[in-house]
Amino acid sequence: MDFVLTNARMVSLQANKAGYDVSPPQNITVINGKISAISHLLPENNSLKVINCADKLLTPGLIDCHTHLIFAGSRANEFEMRLNGVPYQEIAKQGGGILSTVQATRSATEQELIELALPRLDGLIRSGVTSVEIKSGYGLTLDDEIKMLKAAKALESYRSIKVSTTLLAAHAIPPEYAGRADDYIDYVCNVIIPAVAEQKLACSVDVFCESIGFTLEQTERVFKSAQQFGLKIKGHTEQLSNLGGSALTARYHGVSVDHIEYLDIEGVKAIAQSGTVATLLPGAFYFLREQQLPPIKALREYDVPMALATDMNPGTSPFADLTMMMNMGCTLFGLTPEEALRGVTCHAAKAIGQSECRGQLREGFDADIAIWNIQSPAELSYQQGIPLLAARVVDGRFERISSESYFQ
Ligand code: NIG
Ligand code: FE
């Protein structure tokens, strides 16, 4: 349904306009799922439904550009093990970690995975999310990876949400390939990527390039195959050590490098040159009690766009709240609240290859809008645990969140 949002004070996050400042009240006309006009004047078509946004603040709908939302099982036991002194890497080497989630996810049906994911998705939605990227990576066979990607996409028919899917078959070496990582990479490149591309189940391909994941050579083989099938490239890089995965991702014109606590200056220069987004994941940094901070100063200096995401997953970031990540981005990584908001809107849009139509309040862009009960945008990074979202618009569909009669 088409409508006009009146008295809309907004932070538009347009690349070269309005900055972080709150605009004076304006009218946003939404037609056919797009923002058709932003103006001080009311549209001439006065048959449009009017929704009064007085006392609200509007931002682009938030984009969570890195999640592992689809999984079965729990890793609370490993959380306990870690606090009793066993490191994450050690748990992984003993066959726990990612592989314990693989076992549980393989045993679940597509429908079970959907049902397990809905409460997590609801958490993200309550924090203002209108677009979410979801990775596979807990299946590690063709059928199980496909099952995960289908479950991820199916969430769109249960909630008002836009899902971008990423194939992360190169997340861990499955038990049946133990000691044969190169053979598994052959299978990923020759079987999984072609089938997933053919069925159009993923927009991007990601690799966990790490000592407990895949080597640079193996990562490059996956990137080559992804490129051959026209899929976008992303990397889990420099999370626990500096292998050079980010520079490699940059060479393949990847859309984003994610985690990057151990990224060095050469890596920063490489991603600056390729226009690759640096996605920061403070939830995993916090939950693993890491000490190495991402190179924020250098990223600023080289003008690298920084995105911020939940990394929602059972092992390293069991948090389904994107405004909490804005708070952690500020408190743990020293981002400003403006950088945090750009990180979950315009820069996150770029990290999923959608910067032409999402992540800004701008004429012609998708009508994905978060409508908040706040006065200033810094409030999104500030208090936590208080429901701030009043309503949301996803592809032009208006949905009220707070039960109070805020809208006339
Ligand atoms: O982004 N680093 C690799 N993958 C995930 C963790 C997945 C897991 O532990 O289940 C991450 O942190
Ligand atoms: Fe991740």
UniProtKB/TrEMBL annotation:
Q: Needs which cofactor?
A: Zn(2+); Fe(3+)
Binding-site residues for Zn(2+), renumbered to this chain: 66, 68, 236, 311
Q: Which GO terms describe its molecular function?
A: imidazolonepropionase activity
Query: What are the binding positions for N-formimidoyl-L-glutamate in this chain?
Result: 138, 313, 315
Pathways per UniProt: Amino-acid degradation; L-histidine degradation into L-glutamate; N-formimidoyl-L-glutamate from L-histidine: step 3/3
Q: What class of enzyme is it?
A: hydrolase
User: Which reaction is recorded as catalysed by this protein?
Assistant: 4-imidazolone-5-propanoate + H2O = N-formimidoyl-L-glutamate
Cofactor binding note of this UniProt entry? Binds 1 zinc or iron ion per subunit.
Query: Which keywords does this chain's UniProt record carry?
Result: Cytoplasm, Histidine metabolism, Hydrolase, Iron, Metal-binding, Zinc
Keyword field contains Iron? yes
| Entry's transmembrane regions | none
- Specify which residues bind Fe(3+) according to the UniProt entry for this protein: 66, 68, 236, 311
Q: Where is the Amidohydrolase-related domain?
A: 58-374
Q: Where does 4-imidazolone-5-propanoate bind?
A: 75, 138, 171, 239, 316
Q: Which NCBIfam families match?
A: hutI
Membership in a protein family? Belongs to the metallo-dependent hydrolases superfamily. HutI family.
Instruction: Please give the function described in this protein's UniProt entry.
Output: Catalyzes the hydrolytic cleavage of the carbon-nitrogen bond in imidazolone-5-propanoate to yield N-formimidoyl-L-glutamate. It is the third step in the universal histidine degradation pathway.
Give the matching PANTHER family: IMIDAZOLONEPROPIONASE (PTHR42752), IMIDAZOLONEPROPIONASE-RELATED (PTHR42752:SF1)
Q: What is this protein called?
A: Imidazolonepropionase
Please report the organism this UniProt entry assigns to the protein.
Vibrio olivae
